[in-house]
């Protein structure tokens, strides 16, 4: 399911290289790793979970750092595999039974280069839900965080249910191919029945394959894991950098452990208090807005200018948006071939367009993909879709898709019906004629889920130090209005705004944003509230 627009993982990006013999431009966030080996000090005096908000305490075992295995290839500028260390953190499967069954959360770290001035650990969550922090840190450009890596051990992890941390599994790869290609914005009773049947089969697969794990993969449990991680790393406070869904996780941690919050940055903020209907409707509007911004850019490209002179009327950007809508509508009844054995269907085409809207750096690839598809070849759009769903060229998926739905359904109590979707559909379509119907039907992703989700609750962090919350005015996946909302909810939030494009801000390379964040994380001086960067 599409949620907060996770950045494309290293394994997902591998799907983009070399398709159709042409390189594609891709942007993704990433980092590295962390910790102190098993040395407990004053940070440990209160074990994880202490306090009325936190629940029963849990004391972790020492971490045994060693060589990492099965990492994605590092891009130019990325860390050499020998520089990275991995470990497993033992945590309770169920925090209400801390002496019961346990599970392991997989960690990765890259040690600070200036050991004499080391601050501690900086823990990253790159988004999702369902994204592998280990793959991101190992497989993405460390240059983006090189300055932070001078004084911090850069650390990330696979959250519970993800990747190497008791992964949730629901369906096999061939079934995923079939389901992701099917119509997700049904136009008739047959398509609707097929979509609902697929949803029921997915839920059944999750219950059959991972039933014991499903109750324990939500955001609250992951926040508890963060505090156990803090203790195991030897840190008095949790220094944290969260992107997209990682802002929800970071806010949940601050709510439950406000006295343990260290220097915290939340980039691409999620408004955790929206119900799913409003959440996804605003996200649909965000992607429609981003499509318009892309259309304005594409209209200035040479071929588009020539076409505009010949036949287009009205604003040039609207002509591009119309072309995209027409292309996707045509795929509904007539999929087009690719250089693989799979065809590009409407749902896969939509996913490819959504992927290209995550970053302005990907717009050239998206424009290339659209023009190629208009000529009858869906290869590049399919590659973009595969990157979003983390499908490798050989047909293997990570467990992102399974974990994403499982974590989200464990983190929300809402279970919508077909009638709810029908009622919401007009508003979704108005918010986004291109993406609205699909996002409306995804409201049924948790229908019939075998586990009750965590009740929605107010997020605040009384007594926490300043928490920097970043919003990008052109963000499609986490619309800008969510950033000031989260900053206000936290109470100690400091709003930092980028007037830009794409999902997130720090990894765009904007000098103003990076200076403000680096100054805070390295020197403890937050930006002035409501600082704006161009």
Descriptive report:
The chain is an alpha/beta fold. The protein has a domain of 269 residues: Rossmann fold (3-Layer(aba) Sandwich), CATH 3.40.50. It is built from 17 helices and 10 strands. It has a 10-stranded mixed β-sheet, sandwiched between helices.
CATH architecture of the domain at 25-168 and 223-274 and 461-533: 3-Layer(aba) Sandwich
SSE order: HEEEEHEHHHEHEHHHHHHHHHEHEHE
Question: End-to-end distance, in Å?
Answer: 32 Å
Number of helical stretches of at least 4 residues: 17
Mean of residue pLDDT values: 89
The percent range for helix content is 25-40%
Number of strands: 10
CATH C-level of the domain at 25-168 and 223-274 and 461-533: Alpha Beta
Category from helices, strands and their pairing = alpha/beta
Radius of gyration: 22 Å
Strands of the biggest beta sheet: in what spatial order?
A: 1-2-3-5-4-6-7-8-9-10
Global outline: globular
Name given to the CATH homologous superfamily of the domain at 25-168 and 223-274 and 461-533: Alpha/Beta hydrolase fold, catalytic domain
Strand content: 5-15%
